[in-house]
């Protein structure tokens, strides 16, 4: 008896939420062959360590990779230690600055720890693509470049748009799709996952595999997750992201602030809930958002933390402080005659990024302190500060410790 589920069952899981499959008939044939031979497919996903935070946008293809693992196939995770130095031009209207070797190595160390929250990295094949590109000679690179033409390269939408806008396209950017495609040759990928903006790069992998005498990979793209602003692609540079390393309270709070129109998209791409279940939940957008926030927090922090976070959120909505309040230390010498200017207290506790912002928040009535939730009369008002004082700005709550 095959170790793999029936092909139709596998396809139902694999294609749920997918944007495009190149090609679906080939995918079915690969799955059938895999089931007949008992040999798992090799499922590739590459990620460049361009920053410290892996965010929910990255998890869309990572969750699909996890589903392939659960179906019995082999996850091959490419850490782009070489491609990060080039910078992926996909979906960009300007050249992307490549990173230094030191930056890449530092970032790569944190990525696996975060990715392990989504897939089982102990059962995955993890390959830094510097493993083969550091061995490339000039002759190897010339041969690789000979597999495409400038005409085909500038057919891609992002380059076409930049040509029309008169924005520079640098030659090193043309290397990126070839390098990503060569990764597929090196690891003999059966399927490659990526976002919709990655389709060109994934298709290059098919071409290079054919040229190398391999059966071409299936290109399976996933929709791009819009960030918390509801408009732009989730990303670190835009600041509209939720990082996997963020505290449960931050994850929950950021999810609660997303526009209602994102709910259907986020449920489909970030949870395993059925269409029927989501439709039922959407009858009450506020409750749907709370359930979504709980689903996200639960996946990365567990059930106990999720329950406590939900209780704290509900309490805050009722002006009840949470049981566990983060503490912040304020030097005793900052206190004069048992008090401190409200502006200085807000800035010192980092409730606001600057004194200018602190003044605006006081004017807006967003800051209060103590058990009676006292609000300063104006920006020149002082706050009596004692050890254990609770200060609040919006949903941010801190307990002051003197020292």
TrEMBL record:
Among its keywords, does the record have Isomerase? no
Keywords from UniProt, A to Z, are: Aminoacyl-tRNA synthetase, ATP-binding, Ligase, Nucleotide-binding, Protein biosynthesis
User: Per its UniProt entry, what is the enzyme's top EC class, as one word?
Assistant: ligase
Record keywords: Aminoacyl-tRNA synthetase included?
A: yes
Kindly list the GO molecular function terms attached to this UniProt entry: tyrosine-tRNA ligase activity
- InterPro entries (UniProt xref): aa-tRNA-synth_Ic (IPR002305), Rossmann-like_a/b/a_fold (IPR014729), S4_RNA-bd_sf (IPR036986), Tyr-tRNA-ligase (IPR002307), Tyr-tRNA-ligase_bac-type (IPR024088)
By sequence similarity, the record places it as follows: Belongs to the class-I aminoacyl-tRNA synthetase family.
This chain belongs to which protein, by name? Tyrosine--tRNA ligase
Give the source lineage, highest ranks first. Bacteria, Pseudomonadati, Planctomycetota, Planctomycetia, Gemmatales
């Amino acid at each position: 008896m095959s170790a793999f589920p029936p092909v139709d069952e596998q396809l139902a899981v694999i294609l749920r939420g997918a944007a495009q499959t190149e090609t679906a008939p080939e995918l079915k044939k690969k799955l059938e062959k895999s089931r007949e031979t008992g040999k798992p497919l090799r499922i590739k996903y590459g990620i460049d360590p361009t920053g410290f935070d892996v965010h929910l946008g990255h998890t869309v293809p990572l969750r699909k990779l996890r589903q392939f693992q659960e179906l019995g196939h082999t996850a091959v995770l490419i850490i782009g230690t070489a491609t990060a130095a080039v910078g992926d031009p996909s979906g960009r209207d300007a050249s992307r600055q490549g990173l230094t070797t030191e930056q890449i190595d530092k970032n790569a160390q944190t990525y696996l720890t975060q990715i392990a929250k989504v897939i089982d990295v102990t059962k995955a094949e993890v390959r830094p693509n510097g493993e083969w590109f550091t061995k490339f000679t000039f002759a190897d690179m010339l041969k690789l470049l000979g597999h495409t033409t400038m005409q085909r390269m500038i057919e891609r939408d992002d380059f076409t748009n930049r040509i029309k806008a008169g924005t520079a396209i640098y030659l090193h950017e043309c290397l990126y799709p070839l390098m990503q495609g060569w990764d597929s040759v090196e690891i003999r990928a059966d399927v490659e996952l990526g976002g919709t903006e990655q389709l060109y790069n994934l298709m290059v992998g098919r071409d290079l595999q054919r040229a190398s005498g391999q059966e071409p990979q299936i290109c399976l793209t996933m929709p791009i997750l819009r960030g918390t602003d509801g408009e732009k692609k989730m990303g670190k540079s835009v600041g509209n992201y939720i990082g996997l390393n963020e505290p449960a309270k931050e994850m929950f709070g950021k999810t609660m602030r997303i526009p209602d129109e994102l709910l259907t998209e986020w449920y489909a791409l970030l949870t395993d809930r059925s269409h029927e279940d989501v439709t039922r939940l959407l009858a009450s957008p506020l409750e749907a958002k709370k359930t979504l926030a709980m689903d996200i927090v639960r996946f990365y922090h567990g059930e106990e933390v999720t329950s406590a976070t939900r209780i704290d959120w509900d309490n805050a909505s009722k002006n009840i402080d949470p049981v566990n309040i983060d503490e912040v230390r304020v030097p005793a010498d900052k206190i004069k005659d048992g008090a401190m200017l409200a502006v200085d207290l807000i800035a010192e506790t980092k409730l606001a990024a600057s004194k200018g912002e602190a003044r605006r928040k006081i004017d807006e009535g967003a800051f209060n302190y103590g058990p009676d939730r006292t609000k300063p009369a104006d920006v020149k008002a002082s706050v009596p500060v004692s050890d254990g004082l609770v200060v609040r700005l919006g949903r941010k709550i801190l307990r002051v410790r003197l020292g």
